[in-house]
From TrEMBL:
Bilayer-crossing regions: none
Single GO term (MF): ligase activity
Span of domain ATP-grasp: 111-319
Family: Belongs to the GARS family.
Catalytic activity reported: 5-phospho-beta-D-ribosylamine + glycine + ATP = N(1)-(5-phospho-beta-D-ribosyl)glycinamide + ADP + phosphate + H(+)
EC number: 6.3.4.13
The keyword GTP-binding belongs to this UniProt entry's keyword annotation: no
Record protein name field: Phosphoribosylamine--glycine ligase
Family annotation (InterPro entries): ATP-grasp, ATP_grasp_subdomain_1, PreATP-grasp_dom_sf, PRibGlycinamid_synth_ATP-grasp, PRibGlycinamide_synth, PRibGlycinamide_synth_C-dom, PRibGlycinamide_synth_C_sf, PRibGlycinamide_synth_N
Amino acid sequence: MNILLLGSGGREHAFAWKMAQSPQCSRLFVAPGNAGTAEIAENVAISATDFPALHQFILNEKIDLVVVGPEEPLVKGLVDYLRSQRETAKLPVVGPGSLGATLEGSKDFSKRFMLRNGVPTAAYETFTPDQIESGLAYLEKQSLPIVLKADGLAAGKGVLICQTLEEAKSSLKEMLLEAKFGEASSKVVVEEFLTGIELSVFVATDGKSYKILPEAKDYKRIGEGDTGLNTGGMGAVSPVIFADEDFMKKVEERIVKPTIDGLAKENIDYKGFLFIGLMNKNGDPYVIEYNVRMGDPETEAVLPRIESDFLEMLHAMGQGNLDQYQLEISPDYSTTVVMVSGGYPGSYPKGFPISFPEGEPKGIIFHAGTARNSEGKLTNQGGRVLAVTGKGNTLEEALNNAYSTVNSISWNQVYFRKDIGQDILKLMK
């Protein structure tokens, strides 16, 4: 197969790394890719949202399968665009059409979908700028803390957890009246705060059947002990001890099945990944959010645990025959530590050369915000620069393999959290 993968982050490097292992992979292109994908695939200088250029490339290179990594091209309607073109109307694409992508593109849409299909989630109300007074009055009746979510895509930064009524009111005004998150906060979902332990569950579906991939827990905040600003993710662990067989059975029966059935019932064409952000509240699962693609950095922890042919699964998703695919998962632990530029998630200097260990590292190194400079040296070019994944029979072994590799990589002002997985280790003792 000739494959075109869209995206440029750590998730896409992990996808490329896994797909390249398949004997069915003839040529693998990544648009636009990064310095890591360039080592195992052919990078293409086309933006993931330049639909006409992507369409032409697909024709020129006789692409057999398109795999969409990030959410933006999905929400903007890439799949619908390819379906509307005669030559690519039947091309297998992994990623939902724009209606399915609205599950991530609009928090209000996804909450209404959950309610219609009986999927357990937090109580909520949605407000627009002309409903600001109703929104402020609604806040006064809620218990604290309270969650405010920008309705649209806000690069993982559109969720605020407000501890006081004053903070909630001023934040709601900033979001609705001052466009704190731009167009994304032209509607705001005000949601009940759920207490418990968060985890991410990943589902592959062809719209009819589904496979539940390994679950993971990610670490969102910049500081150790889950303090400081939210980021795109500072690390991940898979599997997680609080998602045992009994809990995952509840997830499948109460959340996965009603979601997949709901998509079919509402005629939402969905061939792709569904990332379900969950809260384990006293042993019961509640949905915090849907995303319409794999998570990052969870992908870098999840994919190394898949032992069956990943490309075969992607093709089965795109073709609509996922029920014939046999998913095999390793019982090993997999842990990912994200190395970031100093200053992230705020502003940060870039262009510093990265030094890597000599010899074979104990962890797998996935590139995210990297590029080669004029001298051919790898440099930091983004906030999240590298994701390092360690595997092991135990969580400790996996963490040791990840951190021994992290500690052997350096660049000016590098930062990473040193406590990834420590909370799970405590639960296991």
